[in-house]
Design brief:
Number of strands: 10
Radius of gyration: 17 Å
Order of helices and strands: EEHEEHEHEHEHEHEEH
Largest sheet: 6 strands, parallel
Strand order of the largest sheet: 7-6-1-8-9-10
Length: 212
């Protein structure tokens, strides 16, 4: 049985926030600062007021899928997935609306990343648990940039190894390590080694959320 890698896309495989910020300035005269560390505190109008939550969601929806062509590949991501695909089945689990799935598949394929893509809304614990069961409960690694998803996976699929990755170098220093992840690695060369080691050991993850 092959291992399983379940991997997020934005700020893991593809840069998003740097391009989203440029688009906000160009199209909406809104400033985006990565130092905010959270979308809710990162968007400001010319008068300094924060963008309201409803408008923030509308702006994100405006970026996907029409502006996805702006996104660029994270260095080393394509090579790491290509190598890991020899050991594992790979599923891209991305929190986008279902109407964006075909656009995401095409976007990744343009970078040579051709794997199963699943869209999701909300926590990723349930879909991760379903994917693990569907693949026969293999050794599984989950990679995501958001701490909330690591907590969700820890709750619903505790045997899954959880790697916290924030691949945007301007954003990463402002994001604390996810407490329910087993490791924090922000570059794909090191992440590739860590994931391959988990597959080689062929053991389930520790059931706690403590960092090793």
């Amino acid at each position: 049985m092959k291992s399983l890698l379940i991997c997020d896309c934005d700020e893991v495989l593809l840069h998003m926030v740097r391009h989203f910020g440029v688009w906000l300035r160009e199209r909406h005269d809104i400033e985006f600062t990565m130092a905010g560390g959270d979308f809710r505190t990162s968007m400001t109008r010319p008068d300094g007021a924060l963008v309201e939550f409803a408008q923030m969601r509308a702006l994100i929806d405006g970026f996907f899928p029409d502006e996805m062509a702006r996104q660029t590949l994270v260095p080393g991501a394509g090579e790491a997935l290509a190598a890991l695909s020899e050991q594992a089945d790979i599923v891209i689990l991305t929190n986008l609306g279902d109407h964006c799935r075909d656009a995401r598949i095409s976007q990744l394929a343009a970078f040579g990343i051709v794997h199963r893509v699943e869209t999701n809304q909300g926590g990723k614990g349930d879909p991760v648990a379903r994917l693990v069961a569907e693949h026969g409960n293999p050794v599984t690694v989950f990679v995501d940039d958001l701490a909330v998803h690591h907590e969700s996976v820890a709750k619903h699929a505790p045997a899954v190894h959880r790697l916290h990755m924030v691949s945007e170098p301007e954003l990463a220093p402002h994001i604390k390590p996810a407490p329910f992840a087993h490791a924090r690695i922000d570059d794909w060369d090191a992440a590739h080694r860590w994931i391959a080691e988990r597959f080689a050991q062929a053991l389930p993850a520790a059931p706690t959320g403590a960092m090793p």
